[in-house]
Amino acid sequence: MEKFKSNPSKTVLTISMGFLVMYLFAKWNWAIKVSVVIGLIGVFSTYLSQKIEWLWMGLGGLLGLVVPKILLSIIFYFFLFPIASLSKLFTKTDTLMLKNERKTTFNDSKKEFEKADFEKIW
Fold first, then answer.
1. Residue 118 DSSP class
2. Is 49 exposed, middle or buried (0-12, 13-18, 19+ CB in 10 A)?
3. pTM for the full model?
4. Which partner for 19 in 24, 35, 84, 90 could form a disulfide, CB atoms 3.0-4.6 Å apart?
């Protein structure tokens, strides 16, 4: 695994541009002020740039722990669970053979194999 190469000036520039884009789309006046302040910090202070990058990466790590769980929960409960419930409700066949109505789960196959079946398996 390759080690993360820290570049605080690029991180601060990216955050500053993000606030500018936020201003362009949402027309929030505070976003342009925050962008200018963060940009000036990035230009004049290496120490504060490193601290901003540390906070940004910490926020990214925290979001990386939380957001996938929320998204997967939403996908499961709003998409997969209703589809599975409807399928179980309206399907007559027991495809997994969970009801155990037969003595065995073995299925007889009446297929005759030829030499050509084994030549190109994949």
1. G
2. buried
3. 0.59
4. 35
Q: At residue 98, does pLDDT exceed 80?
A: no
Label residues 57-79 b or e (16+ Cβ within 10 Å = b). eeeeeeeeeeeeeeeeeeeeeee
* Amino acid in position 74: I
CB 20 within 8 A of CB 31: yes
Tell me how far apart the alpha carbons of residues 59 and 21 are, in angstroms, rounded to a whole number: 20
The tens digit of pLDDT for each residue in 27-84 reads: 999 999 999 999 999 999 989 999 999 999 999 999 999 999 999 999 999 999 999 8
- As a whole number of angstroms, the distance between CA 53 and CA 91 comes to 54
Other Cβ atoms closer than 10 A to 18: 14
Tracing tokens 């962008």 back to the chain, one arrives at 35
pLDDT band per the 50, 70, 90 thresholds, residue 113: confident
Sole residue written with tokens 């073995």: 106
